[in-house]
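Researcher: Quick test of sequence recovery. Tokens follow.
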């Protein structure tokens, strides 16, 4: 059974979510974590996660939505965490691919959300696009209890810095492309204990999907089998390892699932 550690299920229409869940179960997906991204989708994430017992959620504000967020929203987030049971604070971080002109606000709100994670003793799910070193700097300052560096594609050295700070590294569909040599090398050579899997659906589609096909949690089974083949491991053994890693990264998920 496979765990999708990062899926934006709330980005799908209500009309197809039940169909997505049926196909996920048929593809041996045992758990799915839905991270929120903005104040506007907190309640939707909570509502969708309540619809199925294999769904769990993280609460946080994504850096690309940072201009829509203010200090009052941080209070709302903290209260939402207090009154619910998220498995992590996320998706939070810094994105210097989409925009750089608001980097100071991105940093301020990353720091504020890391403090919330510390207050509630929760791990974090991190967005680090073109900003790994900046995020690592904040993790050294704010000692959270680890978590997941989502969609990791940094250097080997950066990978071990995350690992040393108690983090797992998320790999997904980007790894499956024939020319993804760097990501495949990381996924093959990094300690297996440091890896978790994700779809990031509907984003980050794997290589085999056609342009008109939506990336869904069901694809995680094939992504997991791709990783197993890459590392020369039995897929069932790989699935057990990935589950163990994910429960270590997100202890509340492990507690709720056992």
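Model:
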């Amino acid at each position: 059974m496979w765990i999708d550690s990062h899926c934006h299920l709330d980005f799908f229409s209500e009309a197809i979510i039940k169909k997505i869940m049926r196909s996920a179960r048929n593809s041996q997906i045992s758990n799915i974590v839905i991270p929120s991204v903005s104040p506007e989708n907190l309640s939707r994430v909570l509502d969708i996660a309540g619809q199925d017992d294999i769904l769990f959620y993280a609460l946080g504000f994504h850096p690309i939505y940072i201009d829509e967020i203010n200090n009052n929203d941080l209070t709302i987030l903290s209260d939402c965490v207090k009154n619910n049971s998220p498995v992590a604070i996320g998706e939070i971080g810094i994105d210097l691919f989409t925009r750089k002109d608001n980097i100071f606000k991105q940093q301020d709100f990353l720091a504020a959300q890391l403090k919330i994670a510390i207050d509630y003793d929760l791990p974090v799910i991190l967005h680090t696009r073109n900003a790994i070193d900046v995020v690592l700097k904040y993790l050294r300052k704010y000692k959270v209890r680890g978590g997941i560096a989502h969609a990791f594609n940094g250097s080997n050295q950066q990978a071990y810095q995350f690992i040393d700070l108690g983090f797992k590294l998320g790999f997904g569909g980007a790894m499956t492309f024939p020319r993804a040599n760097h990501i495949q090398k990381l996924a093959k050579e990094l300690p297996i204990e440091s890896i978790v899997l994700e779809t990031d659906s509907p984003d980050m589609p794997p290589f085999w999907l056609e342009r008109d096909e939506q990336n869904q949690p069901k694809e995680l089974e094939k992504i997991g089998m791709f990783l197993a083949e890459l590392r020369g491991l039995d897929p069932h053994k790989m699935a057990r390892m990935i589950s163990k890693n994910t429960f270590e990264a997100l202890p509340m998920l492990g507690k709720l699932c056992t």
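The longest strand covers residues 29-35.
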